[in-house]
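INFO worker-7 received task bundle
INFO bundle size: 2
INFO processing item 0
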Amino acid sequence: MNILVVNDDGYKAEGIKILVESLKGYGKLFVMAPETQQSGASHCITLHTYVKIHERSNFGDDVRAWSIEGTPADCVIYALKYLKLDVDMVVSGINDGPNLGTDTIYSGTLAGATEAIVHNIPAIAFSTDFGGFETARKETGNVLKEIFEKKLYSSEYVLNVNFPMKKFEDVKGIKVTEQGVRLFMHDFEEKDGEIWARGWWDDATNEPHTDVYAYESGYISLCPMGISRAHREGIKRIKKALK
């Protein structure tokens, strides 16, 4: 199996190093990561300017790696279409910060994985609590073993994996979840004529079957996420109204 590893934190990030080490043994690895931090880039792609690609050697002699002056989605597009890498799976992360609930719409980590299923390639996205790399180091191999042995991956969805809050010394287990609610709120700070939209996550009530609840309760969340944003009940209501 040929596996492309991408992220949104940049090619020097701690999380992608852990992910590459954990994936060794599952196939031939390639890395294509952003040159700089791209958190919050969502599914942005570069359309109106040139980009530069740099070959990198910081993942060892057995892993061909590049950085791109672009976005996480660019990583997949340029790896597949420009470098023409033969890729069987894309794995994104490990993000420094969770990607849960409604917050996933901003995620560059999810976007890199989602671009893979656009091209009919199975994809997995990994995220952990801010600075929660101790849990990630300990658990990534275990989760990958479950995913590969039981073939939990698919080209029809991104398997969104989130490790629990780092306050939990021991992971309680794995939960298959649905997308919850995690609203990102904004607080604006002005300085020298510039404005910074600082933010935090608002408290929201989440049911036990959601990814947010699992994360906040000490569980690893596995949430399959697709591409379509069509609202089925909305379609039914509008069709009925127009009949």
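INFO item 0 finished
INFO processing item 1
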Amino acid sequence: MQSNRIPFLDLVSPHQELKEELVGVFSHALETAGFIGGPMVEDFEKSFAKFCDAQHCVGVGSGTDALRFVLMAAGVGPDDAVITVPNTFIATTEAISQCGALPRFVDVDEQTYNMDVKKLAEYLALHCSQNDANGKLVDKQTGRAIKAIVPVHLYGQMADMDVILELAEKYHLMVIEDACQAHGAEYFSRRENSWRKAGSMGLAAAFSFYPGKNLGACGEAGAVTTHDDRLAQKVRTLRDHGQAKKYYHDMEGYNGRLDSIQAGILRVKLRRLAEWNERRRECASRYAELFAAASEFMKVPFEPSWSRAVFHLYVIQVQNREQLQKHLGDAGIGTGIHYPVPLHLQNAYKNLGYRAGDFPVAETAAAHIVSLPMFPGLTRAHQESVAQQVLESVRAKNNVNSQPLADCGSLVSSARM
């Protein structure tokens, strides 16, 4: 990483730090010819299940595989509909539609960007009805039976799971967590009076280990976590061509296995995940201090009292995103947008019949959000440089006479007063 540039994400440094251990994983695979399945996969599955406080972990080829397989294993299929949010990566809805089901959206909370539980309750009460013949909850517009809710723990912060689970129980629906950005995130359950990990609260959860995630492989990888023995076994069968044992197929399945080298790499990195997540929290807290003096010009992440986020991304809202990104780019600072077009407005989902204005919170966020550099190795000096450039840009946009920002430490001091 060049000292005069601040990347959006640094994937080089942690791999250099762990190089000896990671090369050891590859060497072991070469020496044993254990490339698919076997002890390295099983060891990672056991370790990650324990980390998530789940009974089972089933390693698969990607986060998309994880969500698709768990929905299929749970019985979601044609004639069904699944409720989720429009401001997520398309893999969430791909998994739903590739089961033959229909995605149905509810808007998000303007503070957390996660599923708005009030909007969810409203949708279930006003836009659905009970089928007299079979008792299923049916979407009035499409005639599809509502089968499940998929809350997305976006940017590393969990959705309000107590309320979602209560609504699911009331309407006899399943809850499948999309935890692809939330490895290690925690939620304080008022119902249970205890902290719960992402991946331990719904019927099951899907995780992605795409390289840029908090726990990332050196390639594609994913996992399903669940407490349900039968569901876990069905996912194991689906990921491996429907085999109960080699060449004996109970069903038609998929090639969605987690390979041994990726599992071994993830096992090495998992030992560092708690430490890395804590560094991300520290970085988020530092950003909050640096930006406190300009809160009227920008919106920073909000963390409810019941949340322990792991800040997979640090996302702010500003009025002129393009200006800010150009300003930061000119200063050698990387940024991202997660995500610029809500799913209900994507060309891929024109057939769903949604229009601009249907989900105003998600649409407003999509027009103004910017993801700033966030990774465990982000230094105080880097963050002060990022803050300096962000504040220069937003203050210029709002015609504010700004003090010289060379000493960002003064901003921190004023924010704490």
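INFO item 1 finished
INFO post-check item 1: The chain has 13 helices and 16 strands.
INFO post-check item 1: The mean pLDDT is 94.
INFO worker-7 idle
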